[in-house]
# Entry
Amino acid sequence: MYLNLSSIVIWIDVIAVLVGAFLPFFLKGNFDRCIISFPHLTERFELLTIITFGEAIVGMAHFFDISHFNLIPIMVFFIILTMFGSYVVQIHNLVNHHREERSLRLMFSHYFIVISINLVTFALELIHSGEINHWIVSGMMIISLIVFYVSIMANREYYYDNVKLSRKNILSMVLVTFIGILVILTFIDSLYGFLIGVLIVTWGNLAILIEIYGNF
# Structure
């Protein structure tokens, strides 16, 4: 009986946290945007994300073995680096921080950005352990990458007025992500094939975002 009550209390706590976190996104009404400091809020979320990327780099340290050096640690490092580059270009360079907004999209998107970075780190750690089904790791990585790029692109409504995200840019991002996923699934049993597929996704999306920034 005690255990059942404990489980009920835990689920009530979980539901309360989720409702408290996400319910404001669905509530409409008059809201004074002046009370929100968008630059300050953006800075805080950027700091949180930078810390998460830093933890990801630390978590990848075991890939670097001087006595058995190969391309794998370099590829892993560039996966994290290119994801970070995409985040910086999208959130720091293309988003106009000097504005008045309720900022709900910024806040909720960063929940998923942080979660997806942690899942990418976890997937890479599972690969290093060598004790996991390749389909599970590949599925986790694919979902994490999709969530990450959808989440950062969700903030495009905060762009500077003269930044244009064309249909061509969107289609290019979808295409390069699809190609990378296809490579991952095609070479499901090859670590190099897996990492190359991930790099196609991360490098490709970074290149497109840099192109958008270059036209800014």
Observations:
- The radius of gyration is 19 Å.
- Residues 104-129 form the longest helix (26 residues).
